[in-house]
Amino acid sequence: MGISLDKIWLLGETPGSHHANPNYKLPGVNKMTPMEGLEFYGVRNLCRMKMGVDKDLNYEFDPLIVDEKGVMDKLSLSLLGAGGRGDGYSDASTMDEIFAVARKEKRLVSAINDDFFCGNRPKIYTPDVLARQREELHTGGDRPLEFWSVIYERSIIKNEDVYAHAKEYDLTTYWVWYGENIKNMVAYIDWARNLTKEGRVILGLYMWDYGNHCPIDDDVMKFQLDIAYEKMLGGQIEGVMLHSSNNSDIGLSTTVITKQWVEDITK
Fold first, then answer.
1. How far apart are CA 66 and CA 68, in angstroms?
2. What CATH number is given to the structural domain containing 180?
3. Cα separations (Å) of 240 from 77, 103, 104?
């Protein structure tokens, strides 16, 4: 049974921004842009994250979300960017940028808080703060935008209490940071579905083991993709998000496997 392309997202970030962190030990050189990533995988939904290298980026003037070839159907923008950005910048100004984009870009459907359960962010962005952000996204612009989050399996391992925060989001994008934990993905998906009020989950799919700074074994990648396909067919998850344009042109075998998987399941 074919899966709709509407269920598949690509995480797109500034080229080279992951290689800027030497701890990840990524091979090669990343030059692929988010739009080139959409074309590479043949998918049409883009989640654009702000990275540590993007301190002066204004979404309204972001060249990486200019769709000259018409390859994009939906867009999500990060309200809180990657954890490496720190917490000293104004999310209020970023909210204004998102609304400015939404006025001219009808394909923008959501704002997402990346790396939310990291550092001091849960203390700064209390459930009450998140509730206000959600309400602003729903009602503060020309049209409603959804409020999404990024949550990792390490929150389970650390026994972190994330529910009070997570229930303020409309949807959870759920990620397995450590490659050895992919084997537990079914249980993690069940846990993630209990976090938001309506159990809405998009499953994040890494093609590099960022937790251990090493490749993901091909068979483990295939297992991860099989689970994602099964859960999309069964309706337990709304879709998947491929990670990412930043590691898709650096020679990883998992990239080739994932590209073929997308082609196979969307026939």
1. 6
2. 3.20.20
3. 16, 27, 26
